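Field reference: sequence -> structure
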Amino acid sequence: MLSPRVIDAIARRYRHRDIRRSLLEELRELRVRLAMLAARVAFRNATVTREFVKWQMPILSDYHGFYADPKVTEMLAKAAEMTDAQLQAASVLLRKPGRALGLKKFDAPFLEAHLSDLHLFPIEFERRARELSARLKMLNEDVDQAWYFFTKTFDASLSSENLEIIRGNLEETCSAVGPRAKDLADGITQIIELADHHQGRAA
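Structure field:
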C-alpha cells in the first residue's frame, strides 16, 4: 500500500503535467497576439526591419491555434527577403493616416487562475511567470491610457493647442506599446524554453 507521501508526490506530478500543458498552450497563443501587435506598431511607425521580421517568423510557425494564418506566414517569408529600406517604404505606402491602431487588452486567464500552483515548477520558471503576469498588467495600463487619449481627440471643448498635445500623447503611448509587446513575447519564449528544458531533464 502506498504511503500518503508517495500518493501526494504522484498527484503533484500529474497536476504539474496538466497545468504545464494548458499554460504553455495559453502562452503560445498570447505570444502570437503580442507579436502581431508589435508588428502592427512597427509597420504603422515605419520602423520594421528584416531583423524584426525574422524574429516574428518562428513565433508564428510554432503556433497552430486559432490565430494561425498561412497567408501571414507566407507574407513574412516574402518580407524577410526585403531590405530594411524596402520594408519601411512599404510601411509608409500602406499606412492610412488617422486610422486608429485598435489596441485591445491582453489577458492570461489560466496563468492568473494558477498563480498559486506555480510552486510546482522550478523557481526560475515561477519567477518569470509571475513577472509576465505583472508586466502584462502594465501593458494593459498603456492600452487604457491610449484609449483615454483617443477618446479625448473627439472632445470639442479642447483648444487646438490642447488637442495637439493630446494627439502627441496618443502617438507616444501607441508607439511605446509595440516594444513592450515585443519584450513580453520574448519573455514568453524564455518561459517556454525553461519548461522544455526542465521537461527534457525530467524525461
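Note: The chain has a mean pLDDT of 87.
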